Amino acid sequence: MEALAARWISTFLQAQAAEANAARNTLLAYGRDLADFTGWLAHRGLAADRAGQADIEAYLIGCDAQGLSRATRARRLSAIRQLYRFAYDEGWRADNPALTLKGPARQRHLPPDLGTDMVGALLRAAAAHGRDAATRARNLCLVELLYATGMRVSELVSLPVAAARGDPAMILVKGKGDKERLVPLSRPARAALSDWLTVRDAAEEEARIAHRAAPSRYLFPAGGVAGHLDRVVFHRQLKEIAVRAGMSPDLVSPHRLRHAFATHLLAGGADLRVIQTLLGHADIGTTEIYTHVLEDRLKDLVFDHHPLAQDPVATGARRRGGKDKG
Question: Is 221 helix (H, G, I), strand (E, B) or coil?
Answer without folding.
Answer: strand
